[in-house]
């Protein structure tokens, strides 16, 4: 299952306690983070997260006077097992959809986890991930570039 949602991106000063300040403010607003990542950059840290309540998350950030950006991302429910992320990446690569960045939720619900993908073509990504492996193989046999035409094995099942 794949769907779009919004994530928030915050540039944090590289100072001790800054991440704690932001996540504490989100907690006080009772915002749960469905997925989160923190990456370092030259002079700052990049916090990206998918909140369960976008408006309360924005309220918390505005109260701290923290600049943020909102971006559309694709959420993909995956099995929480080795190779699940690779399967999604292989399907997107096969369809020439670039992944700008990706991160996953830490929690597993019913043996599933959620991958967050910022991609070059959201509409195509949703369409491709909605197809069953059989539908992809059929489309490839009828003129689309892909794994079966090149002799490689089709990508595994994504659930």
Please list the strands of the largest sheet in the order they lie side by side: 2-3-1-4-6-5
Helical proportion?
Answer: 25-40%
Could you name the ranges where pLDDT drops below 50 across 5 or more consecutive residues?
Answer: 144-155
The best one-word shape is elongated
The CA-CA distance between the termini, in Å, is 6 Å
Rounded Rg: 18 Å
Classification by helices and strands: alpha+beta
Please state roughly what percent of the residues sit in beta strands, choosing from under 5%, 5-15%, 15-25%, 25-35%, 35-45% or over 45%. 25-35%
Fill in the keyword field for this structure.
159 residues, alpha+beta, 6 strands, 34% helix, elongated
Notes on the structure:
The chain is α+β, with helices and mostly antiparallel strands and 159 residues long. 34% of the residues lie in helices and 34% in strands. It contains six helices and six strands. Strands 2-3-1-4-6-5 form a six-stranded antiparallel β-sheet. Strand 5 (99-104) and strand 6 form a beta hairpin. Helix 1 (18-28) packs across helix 2 (54-63). The longest helix is centred in the N-terminal third of the chain and has 11 residues, at 18-28. The protein is elongated. 22% of the residues are buried. Residues 144-155 have low confidence and may be disordered.
């Amino acid at each position: 299952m794949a769907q779009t949602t919004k994530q928030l991106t915050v540039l944090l000063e590289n100072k001790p306690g800054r991440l704690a300040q932001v996540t504490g403010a989100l907690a006080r607003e009772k915002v749960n983070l469905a997925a989160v990542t923190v990456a370092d950059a030259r002079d700052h840290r990049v916090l990206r997260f998918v909140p369960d309540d976008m408006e309360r998350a924005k309220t918390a950030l505005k109260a701290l006077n923290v600049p943020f950006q909102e971006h559309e991302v694709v959420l993909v429910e995956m099995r929480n097992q080795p190779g699940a992320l690779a399967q999604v990446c292989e399907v997107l690569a096969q369809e020439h959809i670039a992944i700008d960045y990706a991160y996953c939720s830490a929690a597993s619900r019913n043996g599933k986890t959620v991958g967050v993908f910022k991609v070059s073509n959201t509409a195509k990504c949703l369409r491709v991930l909605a197809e069953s492996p059989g539908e992809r193989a059929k489309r490839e046999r009828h003129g689309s570039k892909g794994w079966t035409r090149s002799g490689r094995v089709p990508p595994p099942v994504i659930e």
